[in-house]
Design brief:
Thiol Ester Dehydrase, Chain A
């Protein structure tokens, strides 16, 4: 599986009272890069049939990020079982090369019409493993 990268620029609303990116904002960054990856991988038919929801986030915070900093968000898909799939994300400062966070997120695939979990089938696996 080829990792997917997405560039993020830290905005003023991402900064907390300590002057750096708020921990909750990193969760949004993790979700944003995952969503961008799905948009690139999946065609319109797959995106209409399936949705994803997060069931677990594990995040290790390594270094702070600051206003206007450019962050390279890289993600890749890991193991899957049933309706669940693990996804990994690493956020790195473009300027310093320092790792900001490392995350493992477990997603559950849903049938977009019923909003019920559905086993990940070959049509989805074939695009996730690209």
């Amino acid at each position: 599986m080829t990792p997917f990268s997405h560039l993020i620029t830290v905005a003023a609303e991402d900064i907390d009272e300590l002057g750096h990116v708020n921990n909750v904002v990193y969760v949004r960054y993790v979700q944003d890069v995952a969503a961008a990856h799905w948009q690139v991988l999946a065609d319109e038919s797959l995106r209409q049939r399936y949705s994803w929801v997060v069931v677990r986030h594990e995040i290790d915070y390594k270094n702070p990020a600051y206003l206007n900093e450019k962050i390279v968000a890289t993600t890749w898909v890991g193991e899957h079982q049933g309706a669940r799939s693990d996804r990994f994300v690493k956020l790195v400062s473009e300027k310093t090369g320092k790792v900001l966070i490392e995350a493992k997120t477990t997603w559950c695939m849903l049938d977009a019409k019923t909003m019920r979990p559905v086993r990940i089938q070959e049509d989805v696996l074939s695009v996730l493993q690209k």
